[in-house]
Amino acid sequence: MDRSKFLPSDFGRTACRHGVRGLAGMLLLLLVGCGEGDSETLLRGYQLRLAETLSLEAPPRSTPDNIAAFPERDQRLFEIAETREGMLDIYALRKCHIANLVAGRNNQLGKVAAPSQRWLYELQLWRRLSGCWNGDVPESLSDDSRERLAHLTETKTDQLPQVSWNALFASEEWVKNFSRASSPLSPDDFDEVEPRSTALGYLREATLHQFDRAWVPDSATLEGHLKTLQERPFSAELLRTLLLAKQRLAEASTLIEGVLQHEDGKACRGAPERLADSSEATRLMTWLNDLERAARHWLGAIDALLEVHVAPPPAVVDYRRRWLSLTDPEAPLPAFTASLDRHAALRNRLARHCR
Known about the structure:
Layout: H1 15-18, H2 22-32, H3 39-53, H4 73-76, H5 87-92, H6 99-106, H7 108-111, H8 115-133, H9 143-169, H10 172-176, H11 193-208, H12 219-230, H13 234-262, H14 271-276, H15 279-307, H16 314-324, H17 332-353
Helix pairs in contact: 2-3, 3-13, 3-15, 8-9, 11-12, 11-15, 13-15, 13-17, 15-17
């Protein structure tokens, strides 16, 4: 669908440069002045302009649904059996240099460590065990100790992907990024998408390379990127913006459908051109394009991150399909683009109807 057909060619025109016509424009200026307003104001300003141009009442606004709650802890995490070995057995593997790691994990600080730090511990433990197993040490061990080393190495190798999943999905930073206690983004917030998605990219690289010995994990870098996610519930805010835009576009589309079904085309002659020339239509379409681009970038980064992890628990599979999917028709992004395409098609029909 070519959405540009119902837009003026000069995207730079604004109400402040060329003045404001009609009640819709005056109301919009009262709300936001000559600067950028929030997303709801842009959408409502467009609805008001559309209604005024078609000589109709503005559509009633309904509150968009909130996003669903993130899966509960026991639904989103893997249950990983704890590995228990006696200190004498660990001492027998002293050439593997794991005793200090085990002691650190079992002390008071280790027991309350953040999920990300637990993953770093498990990663270091696996690297020492696997390095030891693939070196000369096994030849010097007793049969029991060699079998124990083989078992520990295999166990930690099998567990590491689930540990890295739990490190992400148990973290407060990740969970709060999908908080229902959030609001839609403002127009200026789209500038944050690319810088913030760097955090998602690093988490993906960390997961992708956890079995790569050439990759060096860095605790400060990891925590810094998690802090970026904690600063604001960006994922939730973006999803709620998509839901809001979809709802307001649907309301505006209902107005146009009423004209197409019940009005003689002569009565609305010139209306599509006046609407296309309005600052509200220009600003809104620019914002809608920015929203779609931002959503594809951010949700694409989340999708790429989840793709390098193990197959998720069922509750996360459902949440991902319903809220994060790039293709499922019911997910916020595809539903928003469908609503936008429908509105664009109706605008084009209106232009032909009102000739």
